[in-house]
Amino acid sequence: MLHLLLNILSTVILASSSFFMQVLNSPSRREVDETHAKGDWLDIGIPSWRNAFRLSKFKLWSWIMLLLSSIPIHVFFNSSIFQIDSRTGDFHLTIATESFVEGEPFFLPGASLYTEDLFSNYTRREWSSTTPAFGDGRSYDFKAYSSNRDLTDISNVTKAAEQGSEWHRLSTNECSSLYAGSRSNCKGLREYRNVILVSKGSGWKRSDLWNLSDSGDALWEPVVPSNHTNTLWLSTPCSMKGIIVENNPICENTCASLVDTLSTEGIWQIETFDWYQTSSTPYSPPMTPNFTDPLGWLRAPRWNSSLYAAPGNESTPAFAYRDPSYKLEIEYCLAETRDLSNACGVALSKPLLLIVIVSVLVKLIACVVAIYFLGSEEPLVTPGDAIASFISRADGTGDQSTFSTHRVAGGVFKTRKKSDVAYQHVGPRQWANGYLKVGASISSKAWISTYSILVFGAVAAITCCAKQLVDGISLRWIKTNPSDATSVLSAVDGGVAFISSVLVANIPQLYLSLWYLAYNTLITRIEMAREWARFSTGYRPLRVSSPRGQQIDTYRLQLPYKQSIPLITASIVLHWLLSNSLFIIVSQGNYFEMSVNRTDGGYKGDPISLPPNTVVGLGTASLPVLLLAVIGCIMMIIPIILSRQQLPGYMPVVGSNSMAMAAACRVSPIAKIPTWNDDDDPGQATELEELRPSSSIAVSELEPGAASQPVDMPLFLLKWGEVAMPKDWHEEVELDRQEAAGIGHLSFGTVLDDPQPPKEGRFYV
Length: 765
Prior knowledge:
Number of helices: 18
Distance between the termini: 59 Å
Oligomer: single chain
Shape: elongated
Strand content: 15-25%
Number of strands: 25
Largest sheet: 7 strands, mixed
Helix content: 25-40%
């Protein structure tokens, strides 16, 4: 949930910044005229690298400043506020009957009679590193138990006996997953601490289990009476340690062998006879734990037999069940709950948060400075802005007898030259009725560049998911706790492990932002083509940045809400999935073992960025990567489907080309301009739809000789089609021997001009 909230907040900040970048990336009318005079063109309505280096230097540097200040927000903001998980690995394990917590007597050290004297022939190093079956190897000598000193383990058992009945009851499945797991099955303790495994039966007697010599029996009688029922089977300290081995989170549990289940039928049974095994084969204990043979240390000939020998055989321990196949069946567990007030928390990384704050301040300063210096300049942000500008003041490039556009009735007039002038002026051409696809409005270069970015991202996600599956990482749902990662990578070391790891974890977020920007631009191109084409289907208002008259406001999110809201939602979901695919693990407590050697892997600390006793690692999950690839591939198909749809009406496509837009906006000198009634409501920010002209509009036809620039015309509903031209215009236009009267003009007009659809076979400019 924290990742989701951070992604929503960062999306809001970056969306606001992107809108301002779009404004800076949009040309003014002066810049458009200067570019057209050079035979070049600019993009209108979309983010454009082409525009960035053709506009003023001030706009370029302001745009670059906003772009660069977005990078820290992408990289650091997602991790500047993070969750700290708390995991402990030490706990005290008690195996006892139900009578143990009901006040019945018990005698330490339990049925094992396990003391330090048992391994007196081992060196301390050998003993402490090779006794996984009896917990941490911490125990006391026989004198400690016989004198009944107040020792830690004794106090732990006493506490369990006195308070255990009030502890939380766990089922055997819950209990075994928390305490009996090993390798990848245990994950440290968060909600619980010490545990009592409650077994069936009333208890045991030493006379039933042990056949000691007379001297041994006499020594043990005051400690563990031979004929008294003992409710305690075993009590030992245990520990879990989380380490990283070959990118796999491994858990070392010192008590795993003690409580291994031997049943496949859902019954938790413990083979207590294996607590003591003897062998005549000499055994040298390894210096490191042997996971394949955790009980191998028990098959050792170096036991101290003075306390445990059977009559007549001083070298053989006498742990003699009446039934060698006897097993303890665990009914349930009682677990001591932890104080969860410190089990999980949210922390701030001051260095990262400072970087983010500085980035936001840089954006704010850049925006304020840009508004101050460009306040009087009206950028052409939308096609509506461009149409209004070109109608109010005709483009000075070319003359009225020429037309510049992408296509006219299926005829392609696009010419690529070395100067990159994509559109050239053409003379009158004959109209042929036909219909164009949405994809015709987007150049091949735009398709190729966009899908190169999209396909690369999808392939990268699929490759990562496939590698995880090959490595045996199972598909799992997204966990709210990062400690449940399906795979863990070692933190990036560099003195500041947390910040270095944050950089690695969030660099993919940068590419995802580029991926989304390319995708959003492609959808914007498609919507622009539709919006442009609809001007030939009926009278429509212009969508402009500063609406007047019957104009309407630009979309707050640059696209219609039915498209922009799903796109922004998809962006949030994609960034959230990516943040759950590769993320930072920060944990306090003694469960995660910190790597001391900087050259090896493992969890690492960062005293500069993190609190004491805190480790950091990189978590990965396979299912978010799969979902990321699936959603990305589905999104990639949508523009292809949309591009195959037919454009409405008959209007030639212009894409985002400013020169083509200017050519389509050469209005008739005798256009009839309505007058605006001040009582009418100004345009509102609504979705574009078919609108009827207001009844308050009056007719004001331009008189001959009047100004030829209908400044007020863009304030009204417009339609594109064939409009009437003055007689002298027809006399100036020639096409071989074609009658001048047979040539028409296509442009925007008001309801009073009544623009008509082009006629099949007629010549138009």
